[in-house]
Amino acid sequence: MTLGLSVLCALALDRLLGEPRRGHPLVGFGTFAAALEAAGYGPPQAARPARRLRGLAAWALAVLPWVVLTGWLAPPQWGPFHDGGRVSFVAVLLGVLALYLALGGRALAEHARPVAAALAAGDLAGARQAVARIVSRDTAPMDAAAVSTATVESVLENGCDAVFGALFWFALAGAPGVVLYRLANTLDAMWGYRNARYADFGWAAARLDDLLNLAPARLTALAYALAGRRAQALRCWRTQGRQWKSPNAGPVMAAGAGALGVRIGGPARYGGEWQARPVLGEGPQARPADIGRALGLVDRATALWLLALVLGSWIGA
Questions:
Q1: Per-residue pLDDT tens for 3-39?
Q2: How far is CA 3 from the centre of its chain?
Q3: Do 149 and 281 meet the contact criterion of CB atoms below 8 Å apart?
Q4: CB-CB contact of 142 with 150 (8 Å)
Q5: Can you tell me the distance from the alpha carbon of 134 to that of 131, in angstroms, rounded to the nearest whole number?
Q6: Which domain holds residue 140?
Q7: Are 243 and 250 in contact (CB under 8 A)?
Q8: pTM of the entire structure?
Q9: Max Cα separation, the chain?
Q10: Which residues make Cβ contacts (< 8 Å) with residue 256, sequence separation at least 6?
Q11: Which are the contacts of 171, defined by CB distance < 8 A and separation ≥ 6?
Q12: What angle do helix axes 203-227 and 165-191 make, rounded to 10 degrees?
């Protein structure tokens, strides 16, 4: 039952406390990673293989020492990486702390709800300002429907990054697994861009994040289907998931939109240029009320994950 109780405690801490307002380890990690980037980026005229190798080396230097340190302080207490010895109470507590710091379920809601509140009050300018904090696209041309769509997309996609990916790697490899996942995900957010600076240097960060999310994304899509309109979600996942540019976001967003019975995606403007994007889901375009429904879907999917992990922990005890 150690795994199930650890997950329950970490989820409760995230729900009650949210992200630490001061001294969050990821802030310090971001500063550390930025220093590694500055030191190891190298000349921009270097050959592509050299730039990619520098990015991979920076990723390894940023992530692996912390994973090894976590494995020494809090080795996995269950699963395939458990050494079979007695459960360590200290390691369990450190594991709960690591998972809590890796979760962002409450933060996800805290960023999405102000958008919904502004739209409900008829404050389109305020809604644009609020949604700009969670999306990278241009918000100036957005109407209420576009703001709603962008927010629902963010909630569905980040449900995997902020909650389910962390739960998966914690269940598989304990505290070292969740540290590996969260740090890799952070570096993807910092370096995983397809622009002139990061297309090669950030190549490893983007590919490794894709790899680490391969299983969690599909389990997230399944959880969304089970927590919503199941048949419609599975159909959208099957027929639309591969149309999205991201191999992991596509299944998650298609299944989530299908589970809600709404349409998301479509053209969006980035950096002043309109980009064609496929439409995901079925039904009417997402509306302001669907932001709260998307958060509810993430909550129900989280409950399903918790139930599965508790049952699995109990059966394996």
A1: 999 999 999 999 999 999 888 999 999 999 999 999 9
A2: 21
A3: no
A4: yes
A5: 5
A6: 2-316
A7: yes
A8: 0.95
A9: 59
A10: 156, 159, 221, 224, 228, 233, 281, 294, 297
A11: 3, 7, 79, 309, 312
A12: 140
22 CB-near residues (< 8 Å, 6+ apart)? none
Exposure string (b/e) for 223-254, b if CB count within 10 Å is 16 or more? bbbebbbeebbbbbbeebbeebeeebbbbbbb
Both structure tokens of 99: 């998972």
Give the type of residue at 227. A
pLDDT tens track for 100-122: 999 999 999 999 999 999 999 99
Q: pLDDT over 90 for what percent of the chain?
A: 85
What total of structural domains would you count in the chain? 1
User: For residues 192 and 177, what is the distance between their CA atoms, to the nearest angstrom?
Assistant: 21
CA end-to-end distance (rounded Å), the chain: 6
Q: Which residues are 285's β-sheet partners? A: 263
Band (pLDDT 50/70/90 cuts) for residue 45 is: confident
Alpha-carbon gap, residue 301 to 314, rounded angstroms: 20
* Exposure b/e, 77-96, CB count within 10 A at least 16 = b: bbbeeeeeeeeeeebbebbb
Residues 6+ apart with CB under 8 A from 297: 156, 159, 224, 227, 228, 256, 259, 260
Instruction: Give the number of residues written for the chain.
Output: 317
Read off the amino acid at residue 276: A
Nearest-CA neighbor of 155 among 20, 286, 13? 286
The one-letter amino acid at 53: L
Angle between helices 165-191 and 289-316 (to 10 degrees): 130
> What are residue 192's DSSP bridge partners?
none
Residue type, 308: A
17, 20, 217, 233, 302 from 156: Cα distances, Å: 22, 23, 11, 13, 12
Q: How far apart are CA 147 and CA 135, in angstroms?
A: 10
Tokens representing 116? 């919904």
